[in-house]
Amino acid sequence: MDFVNQQFSRNSVSSWQRILYEFISEWLSDSPNIKVKTSGSTGNAKWIGVEKEKMVKSAQLTGQFFDLKKNDNALLCLPVDFIAGKMMVVRAFVLGLNLIPVEPSGNPINSLNEPLDFAAMTPMQVYSILKEKNGIDKLNQIKNLIIGGGEISNQLLNEIRKLHNNTYHTYGMTETLTHVALKKLNGKKPDLYFKALPGIKFKKDKRNCLVVIASHLSDQDFITNDVVDLKDNKTFDFIGRYDNVINSGGLKVFPESIEQKLQPFITDRFIIGGLPDEKLGQKVVLVIEQERQSDVDFKEVFKELSLSKPEIPKEVYLLDSFPETESGKIVRQLVLQRVLEKTLTD
């Protein structure tokens, strides 16, 4: 606590450092609970209370899986406002890691030259690093890299597979204190599906949405809105968000599956969504974050991808910018709302 107080007394403390020190102070306090903010990607962000004891158990589980040892180097390059950043700090305390905090940015390891045993990043950060001339070499300095907070495009996945370290895609949420499942993305035998961490099991509800059973975190099951193909009680394939499903002509269309197919053809950010349609109920549309139309012939693209008739976007719209949550995730419903407003004024 003396160290934290000394840092607070400095005039040169930046905003991201202040948030870090505030959390450290909260973690070292006598309170048995911590307040954490949800990402807001599927609704309004909200504060929930979490027991420190459960955060400790989550950290131990991660340490066990990655065989993290005392004095291993761990990078903190995520905002500590949200659970992913908070848990990196907790892992450092619980496992005795040497935490290296840097300002959250697109390329957080640009000035780092020391090897790292563990780091967590967003897909956007990994993408930005790989665009740099020495990006692959930089990421190969990280023995174990986990990527969360968003989907990983096929284009990014192909680049990740060139890495010689251990890189995983994570599945989790604020309520489960980050990841409860991991998918190995590179190496000789990359995983096809997400696999549960030790002690965690899965099942499905009537909507085909994933239910997480994690007794070390709660006696209650964690019910998600993620539609999955459940292989067994430890393995699943992510299909899409239940609340994103488009009902077009009586058929269910998952935007995420179409987006995955379109990734190689669109360099800008984009989403697939559903807008009202008199005949179909909802029509599938493509919305791209760009100012002017590119030279891409989407009719040809759709043919090349062999999309089913309900999956083919009926319209392509452009928006200058996409609304985001505080954590940088696209707010799909607001994007579609802006498209509707735009069509009414055009």
Quick summary:
With 346 residues, the chain is of the alpha/beta class. The protein has ten helices and 18 strands.
Topology:
Blueprint: H1 2-9, H2 15-27, E1 33-37, E2 47-51, H3 52-66, E3 73-76, H4 83-95, E4 98-101, E5 116-121, H5 123-131, H6 135-140, E6 142-147, H7 154-160, E7 166-173, E8 178-184, E9 194-196, E10 200-204, E11 209-214, E12 222-232, E13 235-241, E14 246-248, E15 251-253, H8 255-262, E16 270-277, E17 281-289, H9 298-304, E18 315-319, H10 332-345
Parallel strand pairs: 3-4, 3-5, 5-6, 6-7, 17-18
Antiparallel strand pairs: 1-2, 7-8, 8-9, 9-13, 10-11, 11-12, 12-13, 14-15, 16-17
Helix pairs in contact: 3-4
What count of helical segments does DSSP give?
Answer: 10
Strand content: 25-35%
> How many structural units, i.e. domains?
2
CATH class of the largest domain: Alpha Beta
Overall pLDDT metric: 91
CATH superfamily of the largest domain: ANL, N-terminal domain
The CA-CA distance between the termini, in Å, is: 58 Å
Multimeric state of these chains?
Answer: single chain
Helix and strand element order = HHEEHEHEEHHEHEEEEEEEEEHEEHEH
CATH topology of the largest domain, by name, is: Rossmann fold
Largest sheet: 11 strands, mixed
Estimate the global geometry from the Cα principal axes: globular
Q: In total, how many beta strands? A: 18
In the CATH hierarchy, what is the architecture of the largest domain at level 2? 3-Layer(aba) Sandwich
Rounded to an integer, what's the Rg over CA atoms?
21 Å
- The residue ranges in which pLDDT falls below 50 over 5 or more consecutive positions are none
Strand order of the largest sheet: 4-3-5-6-7-8-9-13-12-11-10
